[in-house]
Design a protein that fits this description.
Order of helices and strands: EHEHEEEEEHEHEHEEEHEE
Helix content: 10-25%
Largest sheet: 6 strands, mixed
Shape: globular
Distance between the termini: 6 Å
Number of strands: 14
Oligomer: single chain
Strand content: 25-35%
Strand order of the largest sheet: 3-4-2-1-14-13
DNA sequence: ATGACAATCAGAGATTGA
């Protein structure tokens, strides 16, 4: 089972690039972030015609997450538990029924800039709620993963120019500590389980020729429960997608599971 | 020091992103 995550930065803007990538990469499941669309306006027929089941959790203008799956989806839930006041669409879960059942959680973690400030407080509070849900997934002993745009640069090697990110919400010590708190509950970070060393990025800013200079950061991640990590056979970043016509500023990242 | 660049909503330019 091939499962991908892709922050598409707007479904309307990616109406060609997303189907093109799906046809090439042929993921069984695609977790999408920043669809920037309400559920009613998501062009689900395009993906249904390609054989995907479509589940969305959208909102107007900003945020929004979705799951595309060629396999049946069960028990879909929307919204990260822990704050009934939170109206930002950043979390969706479903069980993918393949040879084995895999619980997949798609997430769009808050950016948090400027830091410090209320947006940064929201980011850290959201990560605390994420930790609670993460522990539940571990306790279930299910084959499960949480994947998406974490807006976290885990280590210096995950940025071309880490010195430029010292004060940024994506790299501040409190952000990385909160990330490690979740990781250290017992998750496997799929990409680093398979690939070591610098210059592996999943985001390049549109500005200042960042892609041409390979001035990127790695902020799109997969966290696997132990039962899921047992099944991991591959994890790669489709970095070439960033060089295409009208690209997102993020590229897809995917795992292959023996499930 | 600032802006660059892109997307959205709206129908110009503010807001958001990372």
């Amino acid at each position: 089972m091939k499962i991908a995550t892709f922050n598409i930065n707007g479904i309307k803007a990616r109406i060609n690039a997303l189907p093109d990538w799906l046809k090439e990469a042929e993921p069984d499941v695609a977790l999408l972030q920043e669809i920037k669309s309400v559920d009613e306006n998501f062009p689900r027929e395009i993906f249904e015609d390609m054989g995907y089941n479509v589940e969305t959790h959208g909102q107007k203008s900003f945020n929004g997450v979705a799951i595309l799956s060629k396999l049946p989806l069960e028990d879909v839930t929307r919204g990260l538990p822990g704050d009934d006041e939170d109206e930002q669409a950043r979390w969706i879960e479903a069980t993918v029924v393949g040879d084995k059942a895999v619980r997949v959680c798609g997430l769009y973690l808050p950016n948090g800039n400027p830091a410090p400030g209320p947006k940064y407080d929201y980011k850290l509070a959201w990560m605390k709620r994420l930790k609670t849900r993460a522990q539940q997934l571990l306790d279930s002993e299910d084959i499960a993963l949480m994947a998406g745009d974490y807006n976290i640069i885990p280590q210096a090697e995950d940025a071309k120019s880490p010195q430029n990110w010292q004060e940024d919400a994506l790299y501040r010590p409190e952000s990385r500590r909160a990330w490690r708190e979740i990781l250290n509950l017992g998750f496997t970070e799929a990409f680093r389980a398979r690939v070591h060393g610098p210059e592996h990025y999943s985001f390049w800013d549109y500005q200042a020729g960042a892609w041409d200079r390979n001035d990127g950061i790695r902020i799109d991640h997969f966290l696997l429960t132990p039962q899921c990590a047992d099944l991991l056979t591959d994890c790669q970043i489709d970095h070439h997608i960033r060089g295409r016509e009208k690209p997102s500023d993020h590229v897809p990242v995917w795992v292959e599971l023996a499930a």
